[in-house]
Amino acid sequence: MNKRKYNQVCALSASLDLIGERWTLMIIRELIFGERRYTDILRGTPGLGTNLLAQRLKELEAANLIQQRKLPPPAASSVYELTEYGRLSLIPIIRALTNLGVAFLRYPPDEDQFVPASSTMGALSKFFKREAVSSYSGAVEFRTQQDVFHCAIENGQMTALGFGSWPQAELVLLAETAVYMGLIVGYITVADALANEELQIQQGMVEQATTFFDQFAAEFEPM
How many beta carbons lie within 10 A of that of residue 173, not counting itself? Predict the structure, then answer.
């Protein structure tokens, strides 16, 4: 497939020739919070075909922005992850675009809108009340039907945020990503999510869940 290039002697156009193609930044988003298998990336980007994903991954590898690594047994499967160069180069870009995009989001989402687990973790980082939280400590493991991710806060500092389980978590939740997003940005409450059977607390107490989500605040007015 021939790519359309800007064909300019310009650093911006050179960057866009690489990461400005459709789906490329969405693939990078899936790797921000840790290593992901090919099938994980595909699941997190519905609408992206397998051939195009393989092509984009190959291009990003060739540019040394991502790398493929084989996990040791018993997993013995390959995962993709950002290189150190990729993290230093791409995370500030993703953060800047996310900060811009927040102003154009509307909540709650439409029923046909997909809420990626990676975007939910991004919301945990974006809406954490860093300036207001000083003494809170707590760790949560978030489970969905497809993914597991975690967030840990210690003495008002977010110390861990990524895919995978968190054995030290005092609170283990089960819900869909749209519910977690709603709890983070404040258009639903823990009490309402429990009453509507949209949220299960598999470990921990209701009060712990309420206190955890109190540490986050949206920067917009929900619709």
Answer: 24
